[in-house]
């Protein structure tokens, strides 16, 4: 019996250590943003930054916001890198629908050139404060089984009014 318990404890420990949140961020976010906006005006923000591993193919199936959003509509977008004339890489300028999009690594070596972003576009239908505190995504890696994960790099607060408020204070 003692060996059985020791074996079970070892199996649990190995499973816990091998948990890989990839492709989503592994821990609590370390930044946030607040954006003031006019009611009815869509606004975008990159909420998750992902570095695709070389050789991987990630198919994004769907995403859903987690937070207080009653009175606003949200859609999720993919933002691939744009390389500026000076070589600077920018995520968050060009967007496409996330659902059904496929991403692969741009380089055969790990690095920031393999990064993409998952963004949200929020449109407030009435004045209020809207927060996305986490994102749940459905995806496949290399044609495998469907996976569901949660993660966020940048929790997002949108303060909407008509006209747009001057700022979106903490609170």
What does this molecule look like?
The longest helix has 16 residues, at 2-17. The protein has one domain: Sandwich (Immunoglobulin-like). Strands 1, 3, 8, 10, 11 and 12 form a six-stranded mixed sheet that branches. Helices cover 9% and strands 46% of the residues. It has 171 residues and is mainly beta.
Percent strand equals over 45%
By CATH reckoning, the class would read Mainly Beta
Overall strand count:
12
> If helices are DSSP runs of H or I spanning 4 or more residues, what is the number of helices?
1
Helix vs. strand class: mainly beta
In terms of per-residue confidence, which ranges show pLDDT below 50 for 5 or more consecutive residues? 1-18
Whole-number average pLDDT?
89
Radius of gyration: 19 Å
CATH architecture call? Sandwich
Measured as a percent range, the helix fraction is under 10%
How many angstroms does the end-to-end distance come to?
Answer: 54 Å
Taken in chain order, the helices and strands follow as HEEEEEEEEEEEE
């Amino acid at each position: 019996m003692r060996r059985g318990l020791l074996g079970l404890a070892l199996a649990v420990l190995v499973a816990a250590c091998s948990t890989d949140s990839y492709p989503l961020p592994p821990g609590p976010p370390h930044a946030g943003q607040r954006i003031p906006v006019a009611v009815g005006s869509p606004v975008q923000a990159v909420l998750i930054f992902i570095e695709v591993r070389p050789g991987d193919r990630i198919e994004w199936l769907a995403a859903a916001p987690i937070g207080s959003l009653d009175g606003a509509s949200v859609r999720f977008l993919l933002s691939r890198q744009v390389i500026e004339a000076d070589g600077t890489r920018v995520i968050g300028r060009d967007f496409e629908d996330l659902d059904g999009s496929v991403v692969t690594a741009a380089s055969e070596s790990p690095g920031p050139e393999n990064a993409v972003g998952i963004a949200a576009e929020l449109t407030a239908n009435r004045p209020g404060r809207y927060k996305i505190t986490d994102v749940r995504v459905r995806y496949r890696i290399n044609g495998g089984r469907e996976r569901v994960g949660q993660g966020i790099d940048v929790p997002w607060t949108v303060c909407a009014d008509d006209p747009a408020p001057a700022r979106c204070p903490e609170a």
